[in-house]
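I have a small job for you when you get a moment. Can you supply me with one protein entry, sequence and fold together? It will help me judge whether the discrete encoding reads sensibly. Write everything out right here, beneath this request:
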Amino acid sequence: MAEMVNDLANEHPVVLFRKDEECCQCESIISLVQGNYGASLQIYNLDEQEEGDAMKAHLQSLGQLPAVYMGGNHLGSTEELLSMSITGTLKPTLLQVGAIFL
């Protein structure tokens, strides 16, 4: 299952894996990435994926859901993304992975 998650995470600069569309934390992530920075963001609802339960189990073994990947690397969840924003490392990371351009 790790391979499937990694393949999906590598298809786009920024990827959000969430359980379903009713994710309150996800709205914060979407607002931050798309609203504040205008970055592209691919969202996968695990409840709509054929292997969603197995993917969810794999992602939860890495940390909590929702799970954010940038440049194919697992960054964590909402807390980690907000921390990156506060410390000023989010924008350079978005630039580095090609999610935004100057």
Notes: The first strand starts at residue 14 and ends at 18. Strands lie at 14-18, 42-45, 67-70, 73-76. The chain has a mean pLDDT of 94.
